[in-house]
Structure prediction request, 225 residues.
Amino acid sequence: GAGVSQSPSNKVTEKGKDVELRCDPISGHTALYWYRQSLGQGLEFLIYFQGNSAPDKSGLPSDRFSAERTGGSVSTLTIQRTQQEDSAVYLCASSSAGTGMTEAFFGQGTRLTVV
Amino acid sequence: QKEVEQNSGPLSVPEGAIASLNCTYSDRGSQSFFWYRQYSGKSPELIMFIYSNGDKEDGRFTAQLNKASQYVSLLIRDSQPSDSATYLCAVYNQGGKLIFGQGTELSVKP
Prediction:
C-alpha cells in the first residue's frame, strides 16, 4: 500500500479480554516498530522487527504483551487479559532499512480503550 | 537516565519569534537524529533529520547536532501559529532501535 496501515482505528474492550492490533507496513520496508502513546505522553518503544532477525522485545511492559511479524510484512500486537492502564494509542512505524539512517513512517494508530 | 530527553514544555513564543527545542541522548554511538512534529490527535511526521555535526537548514527549520555533547536541537524561525504542535526528538541507537523523547509542546501565539 501507499502508507502504513493499522487496524482497527478504534477498539473498546472489556477488562480481561484479549485484543489484537494489526499493522501493514509500507511494501518493501524491512524494519517495523510498535510504540504506545498515553494521553499527553511521548512515544514509548515496545518492540522492533528487522528483517529475519530476532525482534528486540525490550520495551514490552509485561508478558501480557506479544507481537509477531509474518513473512516479514504484516505484524500483529496482542495484549492478553487487558487492563485499564493498557488504554492508549498504539502506533506502528516502518522504515526501509535497519541501518538506522532512514525515516520511519507512521500509521494512523489504534486507539485502545479498556473499560 | 532516559535514552532521549526533552523538556516537556509547554514552550510559548510569539508569532514571528524563534522557537528553540532541545534534546539530549545517552547512546554515544548513535549516528542519526530526527525531529518529528505531531499535531493533536495525529501521527508523528518527519520534519528534519541530521547525521553530521553542525547545522542543517531547511526553510524556516534548522537542526543542530553536537555529538561530543550528545545534544541535538531544532530552531524554528519566524514561528507561525500553524507550528503549534508537539515536537519529538528521535534517535537510532547502535542496535537500530528508534527511541523517542517525551516531546516538547510548542505554542505560537498570534
